[in-house]
């Protein structure tokens, strides 16, 4: 990073908000498709489950693209990496808007998704380098607030555009967002060269192989997968079970986005103060919200409230999960570890969207999605509990010989 001083306690650096703008643009690409499933399915003559695979395809592209692009760009200045990724994002969304059929749309979605993991991975490292140690989780949450704003504003706006002007208009709008984000990053993010440029590749890969880093990636994937079992199919859940009209989906999604903004900031604050309780507590809260949703699927008022609660619970987990991986990857290869964790989030997204489709078409049906999601998230909580237990056991093992040596002395 450049040698600019760290900010005073009460404020965040302006470069952090430039990263937020970029994360807003990329977040729009991930989330808007969920408010367009019915229109895309009807226009391209595919099933709802097939349209849902557009979420899975995007998430798998993130999973593959994050480590590959991070390794390919490891010797580039971080600002140049971020700008190149935003350019690919802009072109990819234009290709989505022009796609003549389902296969082309899927391919364009995958190309667009390749930028996602590396942007958030590199961006998270840049963000934590801009602030003091006790504000790193908050810096991550500020950057990721662009993702939450993409849900709060981008997803319902995309659903509204799709309803009134066709789903292609949404992708054209995202291309415009990409151009604006590109300009903001170019103007405000300082030039820097990543520390990983001086680190041997084998050392970066060794960082990923650390047991606690691997456990962190697994808890991220499983913990967050439950969210996408439900949110991928939020449109049919609201229209076919709760009884809302299609025009109501867009304003209801505002509740989810608003909840994400609150949960994201809350998770960052909690993780700054008590990282481990924040990790376990937010995953438990997410599983509880998903499980309780099973009982309110046919109540309009309750479903609106639970859509908002799901947003809070889902994004309260993001900063604790990302911070845990960064801390255990301290030293060589933080860029790569951070990108791998973004890939883990999206592998969870892909698995959740796929599992939801299986439950609808081959399993117990649409009504089963919340309790299936809760079970998936609980598995992530179990991994987190195991990881914390191993960490504490290791700390005691290190402390015991030191204590014995002190007594002998």
Automatic annotation (TrEMBL):
First-listed, main subcellular location of the protein, grouped into a coarse class: membrane
GO MF, any single term: transmembrane transporter activity
Gene3D superfamilies registered for this protein in UniProt: MFS general substrate transporter like domains (1.20.1250.20)
Bilayer-crossing regions: 14-38, 44-69, 81-100, 106-130, 142-165, 171-192, 213-236, 248-266, 278-297, 303-323, 335-356, 368-388
Every Major facilitator superfamily (MFS) profile domain range: 15-392
GO cellular component labels: plasma membrane
Keyword annotations of the record: Cell membrane, Membrane, Transmembrane, Transmembrane helix
Bilayer topology annotation: Multi-pass membrane protein
Locations listed in the record: Cell membrane
CDD domains: MFS_NepI_like (cd17324)
Identification of the protein by name: DHA1 family inner membrane transport protein
